[in-house]
Amino acid sequence: MLDDAVTLGDGVVVAVGAPADDATFTLTEDPTDDRRAVTVDSVPDALAELRQRCRRWPQAAAVCVDVLRALDPAAPAYGGLITESLAYSTLQSGSEFARWLAQRGPKQVPDIPNPVVAERNGDQLRITFNRPQRHNAFSTDMRAALLEALEVARLDPSLREVVLAGNGPSFCSGGDLAEFGSFTDPASAHLARTRYSPALVLDEITARLGDRCRAEVHGQVLGSGLEMAAYCGWVHCHPDAVLGLPELSLGLIPGAGGTVSITRRIGRWRTAYLVLSGRTLDAATARRWGLVDEVGQLERRRVTR
């Protein structure tokens, strides 16, 4: 048992003050670069907010902590993605996600043509999310189009640079909430996520190209958008960006590979904080944490096709 620690739920143990390996994460009011700790304005206020969220979504919070503790960031991505997806499918069949679906009510995903646009210029392939009306919310047809573009980059050795960007006001606001719950069978959803995974392809491309596999992010960079960008070897972030992992409020955990990609960048402790707190980061904090590699203006290119 840790000294100066507070238990907020099943497996959720938050240390206070000195960073601790065994804690889910540590809260402090002092500036720190330790990846195990997060600086907050008020530790009591942060604990109260976290306690409330863990009580509202206790299953998702506990599963998140379990998945992050099971991950070896130095291991190949595949094993971590399988663990994440199985946990995600378990939560999809749980009461917390069902409650969110009932509160949301029925929705219909709008049909938006050309959800991804790929442009080749010499040895560069630029892949642009193209659902600006919905802040590039990630949908099934968008995933299929993204995979088609990434497959070109994976198989063509003459491509020396891949850029992932977003059209309109945001890079990607996460999964399209109108589509959530369309898979009634969690096993089928698991197979779809893992057999058709942009994360695995991005991981493979980054292993070959390094920082020449680049994401250019701006506006809302949330959920699956952040998770995919984090697989790139270099993330260039506009100063206006807002980054976060909002999945807990749906009774879920990150499901697009983020437990692997984000943990590799910032450690399991700060990843757990982002999920359990639901807090977003500004660009400067994301750069300080290592979630992005560079902050600066981006050339805004509108793609029309």
Provide structural commentary.
The chain is α/β, with parallel strands linked by helices. It folds into 2 domains: 56 residues, no CATH class; 223 residues, 2-enoyl-CoA Hydratase, Chain A, domain 1 (Alpha-Beta Complex). Helix content is 41%, strand content 18%. It has 10 helices and 13 strands. Helix 2 runs antiparallel to helix 9 and helix 5 packs parallel to helix 7. The N and C termini lie far apart (58 Å). The mean pLDDT is 94.
What keywords describe this structure?
four-stranded mixed beta sheet; 305 residues; 2-enoyl-CoA Hydratase, Chain A, domain 1; six-stranded mixed beta sheet; alpha/beta; 2 domains; 18% strand; 10 helices
Summarize this structure briefly:
It is built from ten helices and 13 strands. It has helices spanning 43-56, 58-70, 77-92, 95-104, 140-155, 186-195, 198-209, 224-229, 258-277, 283-289; strands at residues 5-9, 12-16, 25-28, 37-39, 116-121, 124-129, 161-166, 213-217, 220-222, 234-237, 242-244, 281-282, 294-295. Strands 5-6-7-8-10-13 form a six-stranded mixed β-sheet.
SSE layout and pairing:
Elements: E1 5-9, E2 12-16, E3 25-28, E4 37-39, H1 43-56, H2 58-70, H3 77-92, H4 95-104, E5 116-121, E6 124-129, H5 140-155, E7 161-166, H6 186-195, H7 198-209, E8 213-217, E9 220-222, H8 224-229, E10 234-237, E11 242-244, H9 258-277, E12 281-282, H10 283-289, E13 294-295
Parallel strand pairs: 2-3, 3-4, 6-7, 7-8, 8-10, 9-11, 10-13
Antiparallel strand pairs: 1-2, 5-6, 11-12
Helix pairs in contact: 1-2, 2-3, 2-9, 3-6, 5-7
